[in-house]
Design brief:
By secondary structure, the chain is an alpha/beta fold. It has three domains: 161 residues, Adenylosuccinate Synthetase, subunit A, domain 1 (Adenylosuccinate Synthetase, Chain A, domain 1), CATH 3.40.440; 93 residues, Adenylosuccinate Synthetase, subunit A, domain 2; 154 residues, Adenylosuccinate Synthetase, subunit A, domain 3 (Adenylosuccinate Synthetase, Chain A, domain 3, Alpha-Beta Complex), CATH 3.90.170. It contains eleven helices and 20 strands. The radius of gyration is 22 Å and the shape is globular. The structure holds inosinic acid (IMP).
């Protein structure tokens, strides 16, 4: 009855899916607890690449049950696209998918409004245009639709007509867009309800019962700590809480079950979209990191901004999430650098700062330390002692700076390209 949690410690794209995939072999249930199809989790198995946006990557293990948690916003067209693609590849996905009946339904009007808002805004966030923030805003405004409601006759009679009518007014009056066909949408939602019915679960009941019967659960975060709505670089954040607090609210599991919180950390830093990024490298090194690390978003294809490891970011993530260990990913991307930089501290307005501030992040001055590179390929190393001396020194220093043990090191995209330190 143990729960492990996987969280991203930076701005997302830390390589969570690879670590989740690595750990899934020993899990019974994997739960995704927040976000929606804005995420893009890539896993490489036997040379084959799988990209997941909504379905937890645990689906690749035939004994694992995958749950889409109540903290998620679910675009059903994307969900069935993903499930159908898996089935076409011979993976029996549908029988192993459970969906929280309180997760929110993301419809085409959320995506239209997200795209229009980005187009019209003077201060763009650089969203994925997947409708995420608009759907969460509906949830908070109490104008959202829970997936479970598609089983309720009174929802179709009383609440849905009011919601769709109000959406049409917003689409037409604010965004000059075509209205929704209310009759057609109502019919589509009746059909969707029937299609989703076999997958619906009440997650606090289901997951707690499974835990009490001795099952293991892995909680899978999307995005990362610095994109957290409350503790990230607001307003350049996503609209959910990828951090530990969000994992409990978004899965319906009580905190007593949580045993381990593993922070996934790239050996350098990347960010997609707008917003402050203290260790960003706009020169040749940033370009080299992007090229060696294939840093392009798996959801939008946008190039990721690249820079150096930022210790203060990881300490912020450690405090917020209660990290028990780190998994260091993409260490091999640093193979061909003569010098590797690490941001070891911040100065703001001439003062040393030992926390990640909630504002004026763009004014931070970074203090760097430099480490000699190892200039040799490491992707075949499977034990810590097989790594070059300079790579081991670099890892030891990161551990000391961050004050958390590094228990896993990833040296390549494949399942086997992993060093288990402990
Ligand atoms: P949204 O989540 O689409 O509203 O986008 C808000 C911000 O979060 C933008 O900067 C996106 O680029 C970023 N974002 C959302 N999902 C991901 C992700 O999975 N990886 C990295 N960045 C993301």
């Amino acid at each position: 009855m143990a729960v492990k949690l996987i969280v991203g410690t930076q701005w997302g794209d830390e390589g969570k899916a690879k670590v989740i995939d690595y750990l899934c072999g020993s899990q019974d249930i994997v739960v995704r607890y927040q976000g929606g199809a804005n995420a893009g989790h890539t896993v490489k198995v036997d040379g084959k690449k799988y990209v997941f946006h909504l379905v937890p990557s645990g689906i690749l293990y035939e004994n694992v049950i995958c749950v889409l948690g109540g903290g998620m916003v679910i675009d059903p067209s994307k969900l069935f696209e993903e499930l159908d693609a898996l089935e076409a590849q011979g993976i029996d996905a549908k029988s192993r998918i459970r969906i929280a009946d309180n997760a929110h339904l993301l419809l085409p009007y959320h995506k239209i409004i997200d795209a229009k808002r980005e187009e019209l805004a003077t201060n763009k966030i650089g969203t994925t245009k997947r409708g995420i923030g608009v759907c969460y805003a509906d949830k908070v405004n109490r104008w959202g639709i829970r997936l479970g409601e598609l089983q309720s006759q009174s929802f179709f009679k009383d609440r849905l007509p009011l919601i769709l009518k109000s959406k049409n007014e917003i689409l037409h009056k604010v965004y000059d867009q075509e209205p929704i066909d209310i009759k057609q949408t109502t019919n589509d939602l009746h059909e969707l309800g029937a299609k989703l019915k076999p997958h619906m679960v009440n997650t606090p009941y289901y997951l707690n019962a499974e835990l009490n019967s001795g099952k293991n659960v892995l909680l899978e975060g999307a995005q990362g700590t610095m994109l957290d709505l409350d503790y990230g670089t607001y307003p350049y954040v996503t609209s959910s809480n990828p951090t530990t607090g969000g994992s409990l609210a978004g899965s319906g599991i009580s905190f007593q079950h949580l045993e381990e919180v593993i922070g996934i950390t790239k050996a350098y830093t990347t960010r997609v979209g707008e917003g402050p990024f203290p260790t960003e490298d706009l020169g040749e090194d940033g370009k080299k990191l992007a090229e060696k690390g294939h840093e392009f978003g798996s959801t939008t294809g946008r190039p990721r901004r690249c820079g150096w490891f930022d210790v203060e970011v990881i300490r912020h993530a450690a405090r917020l999430n209660g990290l028990t260990s780190l998994a260091l990913t993409k260490l091999d991307v640093l193979d061909e650098f003569d010098t590797i930089k690490v941001g070891v501290g911040y100065e703001l307005n001439g003062q040393r700062l030992d926390y990640f501030p909630s504002y004026d992040v763009e004014d931070i001055k970074i203090i760097y330390e430099e480490f000699p590179g190892w200039n040799e390929p490491i992707h075949e190393c499977r034990k810590i002692k097989e790594l070059p001396k300079n790579a081991r020194k670099f890892i030891d220093s990161l551990e000391k700076f961050c004050r958390i043990p590094i228990d896993w090191i990833s040296v390549g995209p494949g399942r086997k390209d992993t060093i288990k330190v402990k």
